[in-house]
Amino acid sequence: MAFYMKITFLGTSASEEYPGIWCDCVHCARARALGGRNIRRNSAIFIDGDTMIDMGKTAHIQAERFGLNMRNVTTLLVTHSHHDHFDTHTLWARQMTPSYDTLPDDAKRGVSSPRFTALPRLAIVGSERVSVALAAQLDYTKPACGIDFIIVQPYREYIVGDIRVFTLAGNHDDNGSPSINYIVTRGGRTFAYLTDSGWPHAPTLDALKNYKYDFVINEGTFGLGMDSEGHMRLEKNIRLLRFFNENNLWKNAPDFILTHLAPHWSPPHDDYAPVVEAQGMKLAYDGLALEYPY
Question: Count of alpha carbons within 13 Å of 218, Cβ hemisphere only?
Answer without folding.
Answer: 30
